[in-house]
Amino acid sequence: MLKKIVIFGAGGFVGRIMCQHMAREGHHVLGVMRNAAPTGCEFDVIVARDPGDIISQLQSYDWAINCIGRAHVLKSEPPELARKRYFDVNHHLAVQLAQAAIDAELTGFAQISSVAAVRSYSDKGTLVDDSSLPAPDRIYGASKLHADRELLALNSRKTSVVCLRPPALIGEQPAGLVGKLARAAKLGLPLPFGSIKNRRSFMAVENLADATLAALEAQATGAFIVTDSDPVSVAEIYRNLTRQAGHKYRCPSLPKPIVKMLAKIVLRGRTDSLLGDAAYDGSAFREHVGWKPPMSLEKAMVRMMASL
C-alpha cells in the first residue's frame, strides 16, 4: 500500500537519496529542506528554515523520516558550544519531530541515527552489534544515543518508532571522510595506506533508504545497527575507488607511526576514524524485518565516483 511520507533534511546527503528512493517506490513524498529544491526533483518540496514550521501539516501523512543531523565537524570548536550544537540538532530537534508525529497519529517514525551511538570504534577482531553496551566516545555519538533512547520511550500504540544506526555511508556527492577519500582517488593521489590492515564497515546510502522503507513497512520498533556488507580495510576501499576513477592503484607502505602522524596533521584528533577498526554487524535487523540489501557496495562506489 502506497504511503504519504514526510522526510526532514531532504536537502542533505542522506535525505536526498531517501526522498528519491521512496518516490521511485511509488510513495508520495514531501521533502523538507532549508534551501530551494534542485531542478528535476522527483518529489514535492517545502522550504523551511525551521523544520518545526510544518509540524501542523503532519496530520495528512502516514510516515515521517528524520534525516537531519549534525555530523562530525573537523574545525575546532569550544567544547561547550560544540556540545550544545550537537544536542540541539541531533537530540532535541529529533525528539520534537517525533513527538509531533505521534501527536498527529502517524503510523511510523524513522530516525536516522548512527553506529556512533553505540561506539565509533571496535576492538581488533570483533564486531559491534545490537547486543553491545553503548559507550559513545564523542559528543556526536552521545547526542545520537540520547536521542535514540528518548525517541524509543515515545513509542506509542499508534506510532511505531524505529532508530537505524548505519556506519560510514557511500553514495553520490559524498560528505565527510568518505568524500575526502573519493576525491583523493579521483585525482589518483598515492595515499600511504599499504601498511594499514584495519576493518571498517561501509554502507551504500541507497541501501539505507531501502532498509528504512523495510523498517517502516514492518512497523519495526527499537534501535538497530544496519549494515549491507562485510568490513573491509581502508586500503581495499581506496584501491577500489582509484580503479573506478581509472587510475593505477598507488598506496605505498609506510611505517604505521609515520602514517598516523600524517593523518593527525590532516584529520587532527580523528586519525582512528580512518586508520582504526570500526566493524559492525547488522544481521539482527536483517533477520528482524526480513531485509536484503538490493545494491552491492561495488555498485555504490561506481555511482559515487561517477558523481564527482
UniProtKB/TrEMBL annotation:
It holds the Pfam family Epimerase. It is an enzyme of class 5 (isomerase). Keywords: Isomerase. Its EC number is 5.1.3.2. GO terms for molecular function: UDP-glucose 4-epimerase activity. The keyword Isomerase applies. Residues 5-221 form the NAD-dependent epimerase/dehydratase domain. This is UDP-glucose 4-epimerase. It comes from Alteripontixanthobacter maritimus. The lineage of its organism: Bacteria, Pseudomonadati, Pseudomonadota, Alphaproteobacteria, Sphingomonadales.
